[in-house]
Design goal:
By secondary structure, the protein is α/β, with parallel strands linked by helices. The chain folds into 3 domains: 72 residues, Winged helix-like DNA-binding domain superfamily/Winged helix DNA-binding domain (Arc Repressor Mutant, subunit A); 107 residues, Periplasmic binding protein-like II (D-Maltodextrin-Binding Protein, domain 2, 3-Layer(aba) Sandwich); 102 residues, Periplasmic binding protein-like II (D-Maltodextrin-Binding Protein, domain 2). 41% of the residues lie in helices and 23% in strands. The strands form 3 sheets. Strands 3, 4, 5, 6, 9, 10 and 11 form a 7-stranded mixed β-sheet that branches. The protein is elongated.
Amino acid sequence: MIEVGALRALRSVAALGTLARAAEELGFTASAVSQQIKRLERQVGVPVLAPAGRGVVLTPAGQAIADSAPDVFQALERCAEAAQSVSEGAPRGTLRVVAFSTAIRGLLAPVLRGLSVRCPDLRVQITEQDPAEALRGVDAGTADLALVHDADGLPAAQPPSLTRRLVHTDVGDVVLSRAHPLASAAEPLGRLDLAGHAWVTSPPGTVCHQWFRRLLADAPEEPDVRHLVDDFATQLSLVASGEVIALIPRLARPPLGDDLIARPLRRQPKREVHAAWRRSADASPAIRALLAELG
């Protein structure tokens, strides 16, 4: 009988290309994953992996097993849901959620208390992960539900085994010191209003930096970026100095002090946040309960 853990290990190795990366995703040592793969090979009687440079690739037999694994996982998930339905579908057990940091702060943290009151037998376990890693984890079965955001206006690539639902649309505002000349503007701010001012912004490669570059793409001169800071609370401390302004998503924005103000933009940058889970878990009472809280 093939072990479920070995199937998960093989799927993870197939997706990530090395035993070490698969072990990191699954929370095991590389040695433990290697042992699972070797047991699988003994059980099926043929090699499932072959060396390829510094990594490994699946053999034809390994690929056939990996392709069949989702059917096994879905069948097991349906068994668990059938057992839960006998107990009137009450959410119970552990719901493993993976999400990016601002979704944890802005979407998950506010609903946890209400969820625990309505579902006292449900334990929610949250791990911070970027969208690509989170989707891989749900697909591999190491997580049950992911909160992911789109990238540059495009949804994160999603495995076919998953389904998703929009749970939030985030927008960005410019945050300024109340002493800043733009703080008293009567209308939403436009590109020309912002030209010539100094900025603190998130580092390149982040959604917020993409927003910033797109916002000032047609500015008459290169934006004056004084500081590159990933943490939004730290950005706000620099904005409070009165020397710089910042473009910050509402979902990520900590409470503003009395010395700061958020001003809307004429063309507000937006990003969609989706919940993603395995199609085989559609009937999961735990997932349904969390989705209901998220709205």
